Amino acid sequence: MRFKHRDGSLVHLAYCTNVHAAEDLAGITAQLDTYAARIRDRLGTPLLGVGLWLARDAARSLAARPEETARLQEHLHRRGLETVTLNAFPYQGFQRPVVKHSVYTPDWTDPRRLAYTADCARVLAGLLPGDVTEGSVSTLPLGWRTPWTPQQHAAALANLGRLADELAAIEAETGRTVRVGLEPEPGCVVETTAQAARLLSTLPTDRIGVCLDTCHLAVQFEDPADALARLHGGGLDVVKAQLSRALHIPDPGAPEAADLLAEYAEPRFLHQTRTRRPDGAVCGADDLPDALHGPLSRTGPWRVHFHTPLHADPRPPLQATGAPLTDALTALLGGARAHVRHLEVETYTWSVLPETARPRGPRGLATAMAAELAHARAALLRLGLHEAGDGTGLAETGRPAPRPEVTVS
Predict the structure, then answer these.
(1) Is 312 left (phi over 0), alpha (psi -120 to 50) or beta?
(2) Measuring CA to CA, which residue among 62, 58, 184 is closest to residue 127?
(3) Other beta carbons less than 10 A from residue 97's beta carbon
(4) Which of 55, 116, 224, 316 has the fewest CB atoms within 10 Å, counting from its CB?
C-alpha cells in the first residue's frame, strides 16, 4: 500500500514474506497467489506491497538470470503487488522446525553473507516498480555477540565496505539505488541504536543505514524518539522500519503470567527476554525458557522478543508493546518530514503462537494478516498520511504504478 506524507513523499507499506516457508521461485510465486493476492482483495486496495524474503538459492538464481527476475516482476504486476524492500536477514531455512541461533549464520565475517546480500540487492533493482527509484534491503547486525573477536569485527567491516562498492556498481548499471539497513537485535553484536551509530560512522552512509525493528527497540527498552535522534546525530538514515510488537509482562512473578508465558516458549525461534533494573540498565536471558527457569529478576517488567500480531493482544495479564510501536511511528512519520519511506509488517511467528491464537489454514492466515495490515493502515491515517491508492500522480519518476489485472479470491 502507498501513502502520501505531508512533506509530499511516498511511503510504502508491505508485509514480509518470511512468514512463508517457500525457498524456490515456484514456491515464491505460489505463495503470492495463495496469500498476497487474497490479502490485497480483503483490504480492498489496488496495490499491495510485499517485502520479499528470498532464501540464498532463490536470490542466487534470480541474480544470475535477469529474465527470471523480470518474470517475477510481471507476476507481481498482474496480481496488483509490488516490491520495494527485501528481507535478507535469514539466509535459508527460516521456517524449519528449529531455527534459534542459526538465523545469524553466516554472519558478516563470511563472504557468503556478502554474496547473498549483493544478490538480493541486484534482484531488488530488477523488481522495483517502474515509478520507484530506490529500494531497501535489511540484514543482520553483524552476527551473534559470542564469540566475537576484534579480528571478526574487522572482517565484518571489510565485507560491509565491499557491499557498499557492490551497491554503487548496481546503481551505475541499473539507475536504481538500493540501500542496506543493519537491523539491531537483542543478543547480537549490534543490539541498540547507540551501537549502530558507533559502528556505521565508519561506513558509507549513502549506501548503508539502519533498519529499525519496533519489537527489538521495545525489548531493549529504547525510547523511539531518542533512538531516532541518536541516529540522526550520527548522520544515519532509517532506510526501513519493521512494524512489530513484543510481549510485555508487567509482573513476571505472577503465577498466571508464568503459566501463559510458558505457552510462548517454543522450539523454533529465539525469544530473547529483557528487563530493566532500577538504575536503568537492561539485562536479560538469551531465550525465554532460560528466563523462565533462570535467575532473571521478576521484580520489574519483562519484554520478550516474540513478534505478536499488531491487531490482536495476548491473553491478560500478558500484554504487547503497542505504545512503543505507536511512539515509533509518530517519531518516524508524525512530524513535518518523513524519516522513513519503507515500512514492513513482520509477524513471522503465526505458526508458533499459542494454539488458541493461531489462524487455521491458508485462508485463515490471509484473513489474519489482512487484519494486521488494516491496523497498520489505520495507524498511518491517524498520523495524517493519506492513502495513495495505486500511486498515480505520486510517482518518483512520474510514471504510474501498475494496476492489478488478476483478482484471486
Answers:
(1) beta
(2) 62
(3) 7
(4) 316
pTM for this entry: 0.94
Cα–Cα nearest to 13, from 85, 74, 75 = 85
Under 8 Å between Cβ of 68 and 101: no
108-113, Cβ contacts within 8 angstroms, sequence gap of 24 or more? 108/139, 108/140, 108/142, 108/143, 108/155, 108/156, 108/159, 108/160, 109/143, 109/152, 109/155, 109/156, 109/159, 110/159, 111/159, 112/56, 113/139, 113/140, 113/159
Length of the chain: 409
Q: In angstroms, rounded to a whole number, what is the distance separating the alpha carbons of residues 178 and 313?
A: 35
In eight-state DSSP terms, residue 271 is: -
| 310-342 exposure pattern, b = at least 16 Cβ within 10 A, e = fewer | bbbebeeebbbbbebbbbbbebbbbeeebbbbb
Query: What is the helix (H) or strand (E) element at residue 243, kind and residue range?
Result: strand 238-243
- The per-residue b/e assignment along 278-297, b for 16 or more CB within 10 angstroms, e otherwise, is eeeebebbbbbbbbbeeebe
- Omega prior to 147 cis, within 30 of 0: yes
* Partners of 52 in the β-ladder: 86
Ordered per-residue pLDDT tens for the chain, 409 residues: 999 999 999 999 999 999 999 999 999 999 999 999 999 999 999 999 999 999 999 999 999 999 999 999 999 999 999 999 999 999 999 999 999 999 999 999 999 999 999 999 999 999 999 999 999 999 999 999 999 999 999 999 999 999 999 999 999 999 999 999 999 999 999 999 999 999 998 898 999 999 999 999 999 999 999 999 999 998 999 999 999 999 999 999 998 999 999 999 999 999 999 999 999 999 999 999 999 999 899 989 999 999 999 999 999 999 999 999 999 999 999 999 999 999 999 999 999 999 999 999 999 999 999 999 999 999 999 999 999 976 544 434 332 233 233 333 3
Q: What is the distance of C-alpha 234 from the center of its chain?
A: 22
